Amino acid sequence: MRIVVGSLIIVALVVGIVLALPFLIDLNKYQDQYKPLIEDSLNRKIHIQNIRLTIWPRLGAQVAGFTVLDDPAFGSSPFASLTSLDVGVKLIPLFSGKVEIEDIALRNPVITVLKNKDGVLNVSTIGRTGVELPKAPSRAPIPSTEGPLKILALLAVDRVSITDGKLTYRDLSAPKPTEYILQDMEILLQSVRLGQSPSLHVGTLVQPMNLPVKLDGTFGPLKASTDIDSINLQLALGKTDFTITGKTTGQNASLNISAPLIHTANLPIDLPFQKPVDIKNLHITAHVQGQNLLLQNLSFQLFDGQVAAEGRVTSGSETPPFAGKITLQGMQLAPAINAMATTQVSISGTAGADLGVQGRGWSMPDLTKSLEGTGHVAVKDGKIEGVNLLQEAISILKVADISLDSAKATVFSTIETDLAIKQGTIHVQRLLMDSHDFQATGGGTIGFDQTLNLTVNLNLSQDLSRKIAGSSPAAKLAMKEDRLSLPLVITGSAQAPSYGLDMKGLTGRVQEQVQKKVEEAVGGLLKGTTKPEDFKRQGRDLLKGLLGR
To answer: I need a labelling partner for 206 at 20 to 30 A (CA). Which of 21, 127, 330, 536 fits?
Structure first.
């Protein structure tokens, strides 16, 4: 009985001592040792309200009121703060003198990312000891090889979790400041230790779009550096799923992104579509080299056609320079135009294009100023709905008794043209259009604001030329080689085009025909093959043809 009582007393003393340890050991006195290490790694000042030893539910330490101050150039408000940071250690390894961290839990973290009026991000100097605030705008700062990721890699942790987090992104560089919030943020990292590939889970709600986001997968293996040999992630943006694979080496990265189906109404970004569309079989292969993004391949299916592109973007400025090439094959124009704009004129057909462009910035004012490029566009077997070019020409000539198959459409077998883009204007060069009743050639300009200034020569078929010439004496004199060529001028805008005849060009052709007939008649008089009476008759016929009486 004495042995039992003695054992119980010893156990009680041990338990009592263990329970009293949090009150007997003051970990705050060690702040002067570990705070400089953390501040040096983050390149930020930190505040810790209290730190204490914990026994239950696990042996470890709890940091309360942890705050990371922002870069002084952005103000004195906190960059990040959290209610508590709990670190749990494994008990058994302690008996052999080893400290193995089992769990790190961050509760209620609040992070604020700012872009100031100069376009500089406050995260651009995190982990960069001795680096001054960059003077140039930084849209995508070069990742540092030091900092939190390296610290995390050097730890051996079974589990790192973040619960009920909030991240705010505030852009003060835009004319109208914008703000996005990641709320209800949950993050779970497991198997975080050197040589292993941690599993990752992220869940959050993006406001103001009310967009749920989930990210799951693995990356690693973790090294003492920030190099990652393999990234395998599944990203869900609302109802859209993406697969992301790749790797990182220092400041460089290679990424592959794919998605079987994207419905644009589910995306959090504005695309140039007035109606939701489906983008199928998206594939992206990109390489990041410092601040250079090399788009090796971008391909997807849109409007039953295939789109392929490649290019280069250099970040680090407010208007990043870019250059690229775009190829379209088999795209159906009618649904494409209906989705992008509401106009009185719609074009159907199967389109293909090759286009090379370069410029700076992404806003419409920037593109209007800097976008340049050249290309070729071809459309096969289509129809221009809402306008009949022949009907417009015939109406201008005031020709009666001419019936056309469709009064509100122009059917064509081919439209081809070369394009040149400069200073907000698309220059249409060597335009060729084939139809049953005519062939059209010409060119002109189309503005980014959809203003039109085109001149198109309609070379009519022989049958249609004879019908029009029979009803219009002036048109008869404008014929050449049994064909009528009408110089049609198209102005106005894509929403409300206007049509007219180039009277200067048409008058010039009539003058040529009159001069030719006069030269033939005078030549006949000089040679004696034409009598004066015949010359008078030919003159009367010529005037009757010109005046219609």
So the answer is: 127
